[in-house]
Amino acid sequence: MTRTDHAAHNIFQHENVARWLTFTGFWGLVFYLLSFMSILTSHRRQPVRVHADTALVGMGLHIVTFVSAGSTFSALSALVRQQTTTAQTRERINKGTFESSIPLQALAGATGSIIPLAMAVGSMRAAERITGTPVFENAQDINWVRATGTNILASGIAALAVSRIAAWIVSDARAVYEQP
Questions:
Q1: What is the pTM of this model?
Q2: I need a surface site. Which of 33, 78, 101, 179 has the fewest CB within 10 A?
């Protein structure tokens, strides 16, 4: 087995694939829910009638797409760097760059949320074609500027919270390992 073959073999071993699937599945669900709530609250006329079966089909499509694309991206990143994603994370933790990037992670989460919002809308439209019923009864009443703004704000807050929590975990773990 060549060095490259060995590295690729290690990348697809251990818990790396399970981490990719879990991580992307979790974030796929979170981004769908943030997008759904942003669209729901942006209707010009309330209350809004929601067809739960179509919304659930859309959520399933969104999560499958998110898991497929996210896991593929993680695998390609690991192959290009010739390093498992676990090793990449450990490297960031050891360098101390994880904690210092919290504001940037929040900003990236906010601005990057437009892509998952577009994916969620696409998943909802695909679900509508599958079920024959729209997710939202009066889709023409959606204020897309408000939906996008709400989604950016909610995603930024979520990214900030998750980044802060992860930094605390990293800090606590580092303190445990540095004790004599």
A1: 0.84
A2: 179
